[in-house]
Write a structure and sequence with these properties.
2 domains; single chain; five-stranded mixed sheet
């Protein structure tokens, strides 16, 4: 084994790497950018994406408006007031994470701590968003518990509320009350008397008592009733209906990466020069490459959907929407493939560039990190990612119950990407090849 020869070969590879600026960047520079990117995204100073919450206040009382004002102070929520029908549609289409309805009587129930009518709200989350529902439940219950704690600390108000409840019960017709009801009222009156004595003794001693809070820890501060968006038939049938759009995205990324690298390799190895010696124009050669990529993308997505339907009960609610999603995604990413293939002059550079772009699109578009867990600035970037357009299109076909009109905006964005990528990629390729 000739160590000197091996060393010379290694030096040759290093020199080639140093001369290939793009490959050098994706070998050393891009990993550093990714490290900084994720470090910034998940550092303690990064502001996480707020849950978009559509609120309908049917009570419209001073108490309900005050409660909403307190909720708005929470940075974890992005609240928008809108009619209930509009809120429901926004959640169904994925434009809002959840819907909160404050029914009539909420303000009155919130004022009366001991009233049998507990403050109640109705909550509906975007289908399949169980973590969002759990987070919202926690935020709402924490807010309600804080309200109750504040009222419990206000002893005078608490005793007045209890006295008001007792008077309302005593005003009921005696014939409508059972012996147990009458006994319960007597016990409430005895409790009120004992609490007044306790308050009098506390004031006399000048000491704070914690007994009030301990006595009423069992009260429910808020009742949350869950609703479904558009009925059970428009919910994800299972977890696979949620995960398959992400799986389709990774299938798409694999196809366009393969085709982009193949085109670069053909140029480097001389295959493209031999093709051009044939009576074929550059447009025909590029058209053949684009057509091959397009057909491959359609085949991969169709096969995955077929497997999902056969083995995982992942079936479209609207076949027309599914066809629009497949063909618009195929055209959009074919254009992206054409553009990526001409930006790298070597296989290493093209591979680094392709996967760098694709990884960023996947990360910001929800292909790797759930949107609710992203920092706010990162979630905002996802609106410009074709990955998110693709995921929303397939979700619309599988379980969001999109109509063709509702999926067209995402399809239009993907078609624009496809046409723009094909035109720009073809122009750059012709310029590089000198024709």
């Amino acid at each position: 084994m000739n160590i000197r020869s091996m060393w010379k070969l290694a030096q040759k590879d290093w020199l080639l790497l140093l001369r290939d600026k793009a490959a050098l960047f994706f070998t050393f520079g891009f990993p550093l950018i990714i490290a900084i990117f994720f470090g910034t995204a998940f550092s303690g100073n990064s502001q996480t994406a707020a849950i978009s919450l559509a609120v309908t206040d049917l009570d419209d009382s001073a108490q309900s408006r005050e409660w909403l004002g307190e909720l708005r102070e929470n940075d974890a929520l992005n609240i928008r007031l809108m009619p209930e029908d509009q809120a429901r549609e926004q959640v169904r289409k994925g434009k809002q994470s959840a819907m909160l309805v404050i029914p009539p009587g909420f303000g009155k129930a919130r004022e009366q701590v001991f009233d049998p009518d507990v403050p109640e709200v109705r909550l509906a989350v975007s289908p399949g968003s169980k973590p969002t529902r759990q987070m919202l439940e926690g935020l709402l219950m924490a807010r309600a518990a804080k309200d109750m704690q504040q009222q419990m600390m206000d002893t005078e108000s608490m005793l007045a509320n209890l006295d008001n409840v007792i008077r309302q019960l005593e005003e009921l017709p005696r014939q409508d009350l059972s012996e147990e009801d009458l006994l319960f009222i007597d016990r409430l009156r005895e409790m009120l008397t004992a609490l007044r004595r306790l308050e009098t003794a506390r004031e006399a001693d000048g000491k704070e008592e914690d007994g009030n809070q301990a006595l009423f820890q069992g009260f429910t501060p808020l009742l949350i009733r869950h609703e479904e968006i558009q009925g059970d038939n428009h919910q994800p049938p299972n977890a696979y209906a949620i995960s398959f759009p992400q799986g389709l995205v990774w299938g798409i990324l694999g196809v366009i990466s393969t085709f982009a690298l193949a085109l670069v390799a053909e140029v480097r190895q001389g295959t493209m020069a031999r093709l051009r010696s044939l009576p074929l124009g550059a447009g025909e050669i590029l058209g053949g490459k684009a057509l091959g990529c397009f057909v491959s993308l359609v085949a991969v997505m169709s096969l995955l959907m077929l497997l999902g339907a056969l083995f995982f009960q992942v079936r479209p609610q609207n076949s027309a929407v599914l066809l629009v999603a497949i063909f618009s995604a195929a055209l959009g990413f074919t254009g992206l493939m054409m553009l990526l293939s001409v930006l790298g002059r070597t296989e290493k550079a093209a591979s680094g560039l392709a996967w760098a772009v694709l990884m960023v699109l996947a990360m910001t578009g929800g292909g790797m990190i759930p949107l609710f867990a992203m920092p706010r600035w990162m979630a905002d970037l996802g609106q410009f990612s074709p990955v998110q357009w693709t995921v929303m299109s397939f979700e619309g076909a599988l379980w969001r119950n999109f109509s063709v009109a509702e999926v067209l905006p995402y399809a239009a964005l993907l078609l624009s990407l496809g046409v723009g990528g094909l035109l720009l990629g073809s122009w750059l390729f012709r310029r590089r090849m000198g024709s």
